[in-house]
Prior knowledge:
The structure holds two protein chains of two kinds. By secondary structure, chain A is of the alpha/beta class. Helix content of chain A is 29%, strand content 19%.
Amino acid sequence: xxxxxxxxxxxxxKGKEGDTILExxxxxxIDLPTLCHYDGLSDVAACRLCLVxxxxxxxxxxxxxxxxxxxxxVQTHTEKLEKYRRLILELMFTEKNHLCAQxxxxxxxxxxALAYRYQMDNLRYPLSWPSLPVDxxxxxxxxxxxRCVLCGRCIRACDEFAGIHTLDFGYRGWRDRVVAxxxxxxxxxxxxxxxxxxxxxxxGAIFSKSSAYKGRSSECExxxxxxxxCGVGCEIKAFVKDNRLVKIDSPDLSKPRGLLCNKxxxxxxxxxxxxxxxxxxxxxxKLEPCSLNEAIEIVGARLREIKTRYGSNSIAGLISxxxxxxxxxxxxxxxxxxxxxxxxxxxxxxxxxxVMQVLQDTKKNLKDIEISSVEELLEAxxxxxxxxxxxxxHPVVGSYIVRAVKRNGANLIVLxxxxxxxxxxxxxxxxxxxxxxxxxxxxxxxxxxxxxxxSASNKNKKRVAALADVKTADVCKQxxxxxxxxxxxxxxxxxxxxxxxxxxxxxxxxRNPELLGLFFDLADILGGDNRVTKTLWLKPRGNSGGxxxxxVVNSGEFSVAKLSKNKSIKALYLLSGDDWIEAPELASRPxxxxxxxxxxxFVSPIVSEADVVLPSPLWTEVSATYMTLDGLNKxxxxxxxxxxxxxxxxxxxxxxxxxxxx
Amino acid sequence: MAKVKVAxxxxxxxxxxxxxFLDIDEAIVELVNAVEFTRSPITDIKEFSPVDVxxxxxxxxxxxxxxxxxxxxxxxxxxxAWGDCACFGGVCGMRSTFDKxxxxxRAYIETESTxxxxxxxxxxxxxxxxxxxxxxxxxxxxxxxxxxxPDAKTILYALKELLEGRLPVLPSDMMRFD
Lengths: 662, 178
């Protein structure tokens, strides 16, 4: 990158070729007011506040889009420019209804701050007082058009950060305003509620229902952490005031894993369900509050008694995949170590086992199959999504897929019999009849090989042989898809240099190990020849990966599905933490279970079935580690103090463990 | 030295700016040595007489307010605007986003607690203007103290500036619109 020299305000400053004047100013600490510029988003020169005078130009020019050149002579703060800036601000204030006194953003509004800076103490122009709508249909966000300055940041964030492009400008002239889709309310549009628009909005035009009027950022303590909810591991910056979460932002939206989704940004701020705040014990058939000491005493004594009477394996432990490594480790040590039971499983054990089985069958371990990182999604040129709805389950992954499609022109192939999870973005949707997915996968692999789209290498000879009998044309008929679709998919996959196969719950729900194996086969067949094909498994819960590594998942003798059949289980310790458990097997007390311990944050239906309930904290109330989808260990910091008397899940388990040996 | 004569009015407003002014606390003792308040809601004097400084709180939303403001302007050498309503239209201006008749209907007929409502009309009451205006859109204003309400210390700063013979312009760090 060539260095260039400019003269700004009479001083020689350096910049890089390709910089805008604004970038040179920022790099040289020359303060230039902006409103529509946002770091990481493209510049559009909408607000005109960064206007500068450039020698040789007849008119003033916006610094944010003007390319810096060697030898340019620029003035940034002449009397004329400052006069214009104040004028622009006054026009903005008169165009819409800016009433700071009742605005959520007052005190952290960029428009207001600029008005203060330019000592705008009156308005010289007639006020428009337009009658504008407020859209509050979205669950988390409100769009108040009265406060909008049409800077377009939200529109660019929606397109460039989230990749969704729900927002855009609608109408013309002074009726111009931000619209969702074709003018739908935000809550009824294609919006995924990631909240990026809210974070970038310079005024109070887009605000969060769960943050409004709770406190200004400047009054809050800021904690940087990681969201453990779905396992993408997005970085968060939490704003806390008086031990209450005020807002969760991304520390840097433009960074990979910097985007947030509605789960990470909003769900921790909204009360999800009634909390369990005290330990409960069953007495005379009814649950009543008791001391923690008493509750733990009961659990210890009863488990000891059941172990003596029925043996170690009569006690089972089930843990939600949402819980941290620390909780899972303590739980495993407790169930398999201290109690000596083999009946330990994750609530998603069956799903995890299925993948493990396939991995063993394909004579590989997970390390041999290249796992894509979340960041690599952004670089991909072909994405194959099967049985997954990333925009719903792992929205940031969904956003990155969409961004790859838009920015890299990546092909997005969706294989799903039930629905297209990317209706607006998929290049191709293969929708065979349900249950015929494996056939289609085989035909796809066969076609890739037959057409010579990949050169046969040593490693895929065996697979080639296995596909010998597959007749692609017949498969298309059987599966109800068109041959041209299949051949299009094959050529897209073969053309790809950086292909990622993304699979999720949908694939696993068919309980079809063959299908899953075929994804790995496809990745394998496509490997080599300077091409990289990786896989990404959208795991069912935030820490499924971590729990797998810790060995919480057993080899299949026990699972939640087997609870009702396994009459030998007399005691069940259910560690649900802050997860809301909806397993049908746990809708009521499993038959044969004499003693049910529930460790949970919420008053879920199963609470009424328990003998002892121990209160769990929320993830925001403890500091713990979790493993991401792509195998990184990340620590989520404690954001707020738990309610009085509530302790970390692993502390409770260790306490029960100690009582057991007494 | 003769005292500086000051008149104050509140137009379409909540009186918050005047309340905030009274929040200057003991500084008022010093102030009244230099200043004489003539017509003002504080003195309860209703008649205008020529003054050095006129102070206006609130925006202009009806015919009477317009008349009072013009009378004040005619009687003062320097006119100072207090608060967001006077400077920008403010919260009182919010009704301007609706049609005037719609506002009257809502207020006097459709309110949930009203039965057999009747819209009061001139000459019994002053006529509402179509839209609310900041004071500088009706008369010439010499200086502004925005805020909702402005802080007592900001009001005091502005008054002291005037007493020192300068037209106050609030520095950026004293500016507030809330």
